[in-house]
Write a structure and sequence with these properties.
17 strands; binds magnesium ion; 5-stranded mixed sheet; 8-stranded mixed sheet
């Protein structure tokens, strides 16, 4: 159960914080997704201020959540109403979580669930590490408090459902739906032992505008582009001719390379490496060897197409590393020109393109001078 009924006005702005966008995704949607991703969670319900219904519907569209529950004037009143709304089909256990903590992760959720095996209530907390003092109205500090054993509590807090419902009912009967700081406080006041489990520093609550600004940079792993590696290999046979084309550079030689395009074995390997990094299949699937339009085509066409495909997929190419394998021709004099050509094709700085050449010391088909082989690796963020 996500508590999203607060006014959320401390952040400022017209939209309550739980419905504000964080890198394009509403806070409450991020929070709901963190729970929906776990198979242990059978249902996610959100307690809202009915005045926010349109914002809520917009934020969670497509998630398939059951209808929201109307909250009350205070946090504890909202939690109580949320628990009452589940009474018709009572679950065994309920997690109560602040919607404004979107960075909750699966490990933390599982820790509080696991703690329920040992008792009816659990709450995550972080041991306080900063010095604690009380400050009087004139801004003068009193002697520091002993922080030993003190913890800052977080959510999700996990409860055996009947125990949580009974405690909230008792609290409501005794004092009305007052603004208890959290549900652990309500349960503790009802005499229930609430077990502490380790919280997570990343599970912070978005409270003020600065929290939003800080949160926009490092987000959940779903927002962080991950590095992906692609590899490519190709080989072409020598045939008649007076030059080979490698990395788009014409290199005089006693033979040419045979192939349906310009037989630039390096660029074919490179194209496959780009496609590999973005899960794009291979060059042969996109450019059929039998297709006459590719006869004698410059292979930079294939590389540039793969680069554009990467862009279209939202990937950012990071670097390319190629190894050319042949006994002859000698490639060292052309390395600089090949590096520049590949950097231009991939729109990368020169420092992110590396080209190496090796012989196989006379062994194998390249060693016997039958052709040229090339290996390529490309890294992309996607
Ligand atoms: Mg080829």
């Amino acid at each position: 159960m996500l508590l999203a009924a607060g006014r959320g006005t401390r952040v400022g702005g017209a939209t309550p914080k739980q419905y504000r966008s964080l890198n394009g995704v509403a806070v409450v949607r991020r929070t709901a997704l963190a729970f929906l991703d776990l198979p242990e969670i059978t249902s996610v319900r959100v307690v809202i201020d009915p005045a926010h219904r349109a914002l809520y519907d917009d934020a969670v569209r497509g998630l398939g959540l059951a209808a929201p529950i109307d909250g009350g004037a205070t946090r504890s009143a909202s939690a109580w109403r949320g628990l009452e709304a589940l009474a018709d089909a009572p679950p065994d256990a309920v997690l109560i979580h602040d919607a404004a903590r979107p960075f909750v992760d699966a490990a933390l959720i599982r820790r509080v669930l696991e703690a329920l095996r040992h008792g009816p209530a659990a709450a995550p907390g972080l041991a306080l590490t900063d010095a604690l003092v009380r400050c009087d109205d004139s801004g003068v500090l009193a002697p520091p408090l002993d922080r030993k054993g003190l913890h800052a509590l977080q959510t999700p807090q996990a409860f055996a459902y009947p125990v949580a419902l009974a405690a909230h009912r008792a609290a409501a009967d005794r004092e009305g739906p007052d603004n208890w700081p959290d549900d652990a406080a309500v349960l503790t006041a009802a005499g229930v032992a609430v077990r502490l489990v380790p919280g997570a520093a990343a599970n912070r609550k978005l409270t003020i505008e600065a929290d939003f600004a800080a949160a926009r940079t490092p987000l959940t792993t779903a927002d962080i582009a991950l590095p992906r590696c692609g590899s490519g290999f190709d080989a072409h046979r020598f045939g008649p001719g007076d030059a080979v084309t490698l990395c788009g550079v014409r290199i005089p030689h006693s033979h040419g390379l045979i192939g349906h395009s310009d037989a630039d074995v390096a660029l074919h390997a490179l194209t496959n490496a780009v496609l590999g990094a973005i899960g794009g299949g291979d060059i042969g699937a996109h450019f059929q060897a039998s297709d006459p339009q590719w006869r004698d085509a410059p292979s930079r066409t294939f590389v540039e197409w793969s680069r554009d495909s990467a862009r279209a997929a939202g990937a950012r190419l990071i670097n390319a590393d190629l190894t050319l394998v042949c006994q002859r021709p000698a490639l060292a004099p052309y390395r600089r020109a090949m590096t520049a050509a590949v950097a231009t094709m991939l729109a990368l700085p020169l420092s992110r393109v590396n080209i190496k050449a090796t012989t196989t010391e006379g062994m194998g088909f390249t060693g016997r001078g039958e052709g040229v082989a090339a290996l390529a690796s490309v890294m992309a963020l996607l």
